[in-house]
């Protein structure tokens, strides 16, 4: 056997050995081609039961129990009072429960616990507050229709022990994505959209939108309504509210300025759908619940958290600029939005004081005071639209910076109008 033959035999042996190793690893870690569908009974809301059949998703869901600061320094899941960073909240929400208790949101597993512990909830609270806190809303609406919303909150709280779980977003029989919030379904119908016919990619945002959106309670019935009849921008929603829809005029009257204030409620979906990601078809889940792999098996992460914690899976599929650069871009956007948000909030607090002072002047021009109140109502809505959302402007930085700029300008106009009404220029 010559030297060339020996080399060929050695090469062939190594090739066979390498192929054997590869095949053995593929066989050992062979990914499932499909996830085995396990049907669960309707009304099964216990995450542990779901988790026995879908362990990868369940284990990631349990990470929502963890509490941590946000990588960029805004938001996060630690239950701290927002007024620690924004003391102007005490003034701007004076006369409203948000001035007493306004904490950062924690994860889905805490939805019921945080509701029970909230100082904003009193004995007169209505069951409408439970709409986005538990999958039990499905059963309540099936049994009672919208009349559930006007019942005492404690009555429905006593009937459920499950916070936001798998069943809020998945059909237990088919595992397909679904929405169960009747307010969202009705709001989309008004926009000409039948969510039951939505494709899977659309549903990967709709399941989030059913709760992460602006809403109000209809006076008298407490029915939950999304203010989308005229559109989803802050300008369009303010125009809608200006019509006093269904008799709804304001969330509260500010005790100092007597401004009929609108309190925004986490308009995350509205921000996103007008932003660059929403416009280009990137779903909420693409970023906040990215696809992951374990032992070759692909699954959707149910750790609903900041994409900055999972940048490789959340951002890299579309962006190749490198994680360090992407992080710095996000941080810059949020820093700029925070600066204007804080400035706007402080300016609005000053405007409440200016109107109060002008109102004590018996000779003040009442027409100008009325004008000042309308300007301030408008300004506070724009400021709160951004401040109440969870992205610190990242979902739509162009719109949010513009909205905050308008809030600052409107608040200054309110101050000027109040000073003009009283013939002073002290604030």
TrEMBL record:
The keyword Calcium applies. Signal peptide: none annotated. Its EC number is 1.7.2.2. Its main location: other. Keywords: Calcium, Heme, Iron, Metal-binding, Oxidoreductase, Signal. It catalyses: 6 Fe(III)-[cytochrome c] + NH4(+) + 2 H2O = 6 Fe(II)-[cytochrome c] + nitrite + 8 H(+). One of its GO terms (molecular function) is nitrite reductase (cytochrome, ammonia-forming) activity. Belongs to the cytochrome c-552 family. This is nitrite reductase (cytochrome; ammonia-forming). It comes from Sporomusa acidovorans (strain ATCC 49682 / DSM 3132 / Mol). The lineage of its organism: Bacteria, Bacillati, Bacillota, Negativicutes, Selenomonadales. The gene is nrfA_1.
């Amino acid at each position: 056997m010559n030297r060339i033959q020996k080399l060929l035999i050695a090469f062939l042996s190594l090739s066979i050995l390498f192929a054997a190793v590869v095949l053995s690893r593929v066989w050992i870690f062979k990914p499932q081609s499909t996830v085995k569908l396990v049907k669960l009974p309707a009304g099964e809301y216990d995450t542990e039961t779901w988790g026995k059949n879908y362990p990868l998703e369940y284990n990631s869901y349990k990470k929502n129990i963890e509490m941590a600061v946000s990588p960029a320094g805004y938001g996060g899941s630690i239950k701290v009072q927002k007024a620690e960073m924004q003391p102007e909240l005490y003034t701007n929400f004076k006369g409203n429960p948000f001035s007493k208790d306004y904490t950062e949101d924690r994860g889905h597993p805490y939805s019921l616990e945080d509701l029970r512990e909230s100082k904003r909830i009193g004995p007169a609270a209505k069951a409408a507050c439970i709409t986005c806190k538990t999958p039990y809303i499905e059963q309540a609406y099936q049994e009672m229709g919208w009349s559930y919303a006007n019942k005492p909150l404690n009555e429905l709280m006593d009937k459920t022990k499950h916070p936001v779980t798998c069943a809020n977003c998945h059909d237990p029989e088919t595992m397909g994505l679904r929405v169960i919030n009747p307010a969202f379904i009705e709001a989309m119908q008004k926009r000409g959209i039948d969510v039951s016919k939505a494709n899977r990619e659309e549903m990967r945002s709709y399941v989030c939108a059913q709760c992460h959106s602006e809403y109000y309670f209809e006076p008298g019935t407490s029915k939950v309504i999304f203010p989308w009849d005229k559109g989803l921008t802050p300008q369009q929603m303010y125009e809608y509210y200006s019509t006093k829809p269904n008799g709804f005029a304001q969330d509260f009257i500010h005790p100092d300025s007597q401004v009929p204030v609108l309190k925004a409620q986490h308009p995350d979906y509205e921000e996103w759908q007008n932003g660059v990601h929403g416009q280009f078809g990137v779903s909420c889940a693409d970023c906040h619940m990215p696809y992951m792999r374990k032992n070759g098996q692909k699954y959707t992460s149910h750790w609903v958290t900041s994409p900055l914690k999972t940048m490789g899976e959340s951002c890299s599929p579309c962006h190749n600029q490198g994680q360090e650069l992407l992080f710095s871009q996000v941080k810059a956007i949020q820093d700029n939005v925070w600066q204007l948000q804080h400035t706007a909030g402080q300016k609005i607090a000053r405007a409440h004081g200016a109107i109060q002072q002008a109102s004590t002047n018996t000779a003040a021009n009442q027409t100008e005071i009325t004008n000042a109140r309308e300007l301030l109502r408008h300004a506070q809505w724009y400021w709160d639209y951004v401040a109440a959302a969870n992205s610190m402007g990242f979902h739509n930085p162009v719109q949010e910076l513009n909205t905050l700029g308008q809030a600052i300008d409107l608040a200054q106009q309110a101050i000027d109008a109040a000073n003009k009404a009283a013939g002073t220029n002290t604030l």
